[in-house]
Amino acid sequence: MAAARVRCHSNAPFTRLPQSGHRNSPTLPISPNRVDFAALKSPRKFLLSIGDGSSCTRRVSGSCLKSTVRAVLDEKKTDAIRETEVEEKRFTCVMKFGGSSVASAERMKEVAELILTFPEESPVIVLSAMGKTTNNLLLAGEKAVSCGVSNASEIEELSIIKELHLRTVKELQIDPSVFLSFLEELEQLLKGIAMMKELTLRTRDYLVSFGECLSTRIFAAYLNKIGVKARQYDAFEIGFITTDDFTNGDILEATYPAVAKRLYDDWVDDPAVPIVTGFLGKGWKTGAVTTLGRGGSDLTATTIGKALGLQEIQVWKDVDGVLTCDPTIYKRATPVPFLTFDEAAELAYFGAQVLHPQSMRPAREGGIPVRVKNSYNPKAPGTIITKTRDMTKTVLTSIVLKRNVTMLDIASTRMLGQVGFLAKVFSIFEDLEISVDVVATSEVSLSLTLDPSKLWSRELIQQELDHVVEELEKIAVVNLSKGRAIISLIGNVQHSSLILERAFHVLWTKGINVQMISQGASKVNISLIVNDDEAEGCVEALHKSFFESGDLSELLIQPRFGNGSPVSALQVEN
Ligand SMILES: Nc1ncnc2c1ncn2[C@@H]1O[C@H](COP(=O)(O)OP(=O)(O)O)[C@@H](O)[C@H]1O
Ligand SMILES: N[C@@H](CC(=O)OP(=O)(O)O)C(=O)O
After folding, report:
1. Which end of the chain, N or C, is less surrounded by CB atoms within 10 Å?
2. pTM of the predicted structure, to 2 decimals
3. pLDDT tens across 359-375, in order?
4. Domains along the chain with CATH numbers
5. What is the predicted ipTM?
6. Closest ligand 2 atom to 129 CA
7. Which residue ranges have their beta carbon within 6 Å of ligand 2?
8. Helix 421-431 crosses helix 458-472 at what angle (to 10 degrees)?
9. Residue nearest to atom 3 of ligand 2 (CA)
10. Which ligand 2 atom is the nearest neighbour of the CA of 317?
């Protein structure tokens, strides 16, 4: 028998088609009898090149390799065979692109180019819906409830969605047929909502899923068109299993092995860049489409990162990383180069829209760094989020604002020493499934804020609040104040005295009364409650003082009191 040759081979999907799937790398003469079959892992794929120039690809496990090579030799009646191992190139990273990154055909082209600038990477791509599509779908659904079946086709937001996607498909010059059927289905769904005159949370999730289902199909078709082999996936079809909490599904553990198996098996079978819908899952009991909460594509990306044990998770946004505050509140916000998972989670939970509140969990569990980058400005270094970082010189990292918060002051009707008072109060919140954000307690009274995102619609807010107060008044005197805001100071709480000293000086200078203060157990967050209408001014003043008036870390080695007291040196710009 003639010698077979093993050729080292890289099958990176970034190599543009029409490459036949392999490069002409040097060949090593080797007899099939001398292949170390035991060392081969199952299943692998080999390209068998026959001496006459033809070739065939077979997926074989290590143990079948020998017989497959022999069978090919017999079949082809040739003794000149070269066996090329298709190298198992593992996925290296996940890249998530948010709605603003894929808002138009132009943006999709730029994202494709951006992906191609990393030829050394084998990424899994996660996409959100295009631009404002999710909001438009929700608005369309709400209008459908009351517009009547005959008017459902005329809903303005439906026209906006159709127009955007059809224009994008046209500009990218891809076949529109598959998208047309999706848009028709969407119209049918809106008619169904109009007929039923109701939009349940389950239907709402199904409705918004059209956004990600469309964007990923369009982008995958475009990549294939430009010669980058890509495969579209609906997350709810590949193992993203969630609780059945529609609009706010929680990823279940079974997701990780299922997603890893599906993506990896397909890759081994036929390598192609996976393009996965962000934000979506499948309820484990109902089997219906669920969503992971607004901004949930970040969580899709970190879940895939953990499932595949990737080297890095990248989330591409429209800002130069996580910034010192929301740039829409104060435009002189600057990027924060390093964050810990704890800081990022706290920042997200307390309202920084830049990251989904739950998204850090899989990354932290998998110990996978998360990089936040700007798709409009890829050269900017962005923010890298890791388990630990050098905090010795860190005082404050970022200032976060959460608006529209309701505050409750609850004082026990009994005087001192009432055992179990706090437990009773919290059991009421548990029974009513209302989430509490910030708490400050004493033995017989407490103040707390309620998470506004848990109170879905206007009508429900009032009903739920009335119910809470009614229940609490059985054991306490309750004072409810609406229109509050939480300002969270994310940083190194080891230096809490310095942070508080400075923050209170700033707020005192502005004549602001802080209504409640709480230092989180996470050791990275101090929260202050102020009136909503004063909050933006507070963030701006705090930002100027903490980030624009010299290096705060220098104060860490100065004497705290006497002539050198940092307070005496503070300046607040108004
Ligand atoms: N601390 C912060 N740093 C950066 N961006 C922030 C911050 N707080 C709020 N944002 C807002 O988050 C937006 C980016 O998040 P998002 O819109 O969810 O991105 P995408 O849709 O691209 O995933 C920014 O445009 C910015 O307005
Ligand atoms: N499209 C969904 C999910 C998402 O993550 O979007 P984005 O990445 O644009 O925040 C939303 O608007 O909530």
Report:
1. C
2. 0.82
3. 999 999 999 999 999 99
4. 4-85 (no CATH), 93-130+215-385 (3.40.1160.10), 397-569 (3.30.2130.10)
5. 0.98
6. 1
7. 98-99, 128-129, 134, 211, 278-279, 294-297
8. 150
9. 295
10. 8
